[in-house]
Amino acid sequence: MKTLLLALGLATALSAPAMAQEKLKIGATVYGLNAEFMQIWTAALQKHPAVQNGEVEVTVFDGRYDALVQQEQFNTMITQQYDAIIFVPMDIEAGAAPVQAAVDAGIPVVGSNARVNSDLLTSYVGSNDVEAGELEAKAVLDKMGCKGNLVIIEGPIGQSGQIQRLEGNEKALAACPDVKVLEQQTGNWSRAEAQTLMENWLTSHPGQINGVIGQNDEMALGAIEAIKAAGLDVGDFAIAGIDGVTDAINAVKAGEMASILQDANAQAQGALDIAIKAVKADYEPQSPIWQQYPSMGWEDGKAKTYLVPWTPVTTDNADELLKSRQ
């Protein structure tokens, strides 16, 4: 009997720390992984100190640019009893239902990068897309001298980035009433789709397009490729994008476009810190991004919104930004 009790006691002693060290299981569903920005975001998540030291296991699901796919991914995470979910939604409205389902199942959901129309999120960690839309449009309009014609290549219709960046675009355009928008269509964040759009527009409006507002860098870069393929001088166009992806930084260095860095690293790692805090009340943030951007303010991890500042890409900071990608 004593031997049995001793064995039970030893088993209990061994299992207690094992249970205490059990990894948190956190999932992230992102709208799509085809382009560099979300690839940087995903890599940053995996490099978070809590993942590196083994406290947290992170699984990233590719939403494949489909809100229904993301909903199914939520269902999988709910069924498998994930501890928390980070959500980068494809659609601002369609994303509300899976958030509701997760919260009903007792799983906290943290938004990152793109917004969802739900007040059930624990917090949101992203950047002000209206501000970015206004900044990029102003860069184009300033080069155009507030006159002439431009085209707008939008993100996926119904995603928060498309909605809010367009609001910012229009704010800047309101200050230049003599500028005409010749074309406005979605390029779905895709360089290839934007190149096709721009090729068509250069044909249908020969010699008339002076500026291009690409609501992300991939689409601005697609427009540049179309301009070059048509044998035109990129320097004759005012072009801007958003995100600060590697090719865009190089294009800024070459004087071909303007871009604004959206810090994927800060958005991803900030969201993971918040997600861990939602599960472990005594958790303190481990990512250095809170020191990098003091304006975000940790606030005990309980604020509803944390905004990562934008950084304009310039010829002065381009090499430093490129170095950070290596």
TrEMBL record:
Coiled-coil residue windows: none
Record-annotated Periplasmic binding protein domain positions: 27-280
Subcellular location(s) per record: Cell envelope
Gene Ontology, cellular component aspect: cell envelope
Stored InterPro entries: Peripla_BP_I (IPR028082), SBP_2_dom (IPR025997)
Keywords tagged on the record: Signal
Signal peptide region: 1-20
Main location: other
Chain segments annotated as transmembrane: none
Gene Ontology molecular function terms on file: carbohydrate binding
Short name of one Pfam family: Peripla_BP_4
Similarity comment text for this entry: Belongs to the bacterial solute-binding protein 2 family.
Name under which the protein is recorded: Sugar ABC transporter substrate-binding protein
Higher taxonomy: Bacteria, Pseudomonadati, Pseudomonadota, Alphaproteobacteria, Hyphomicrobiales
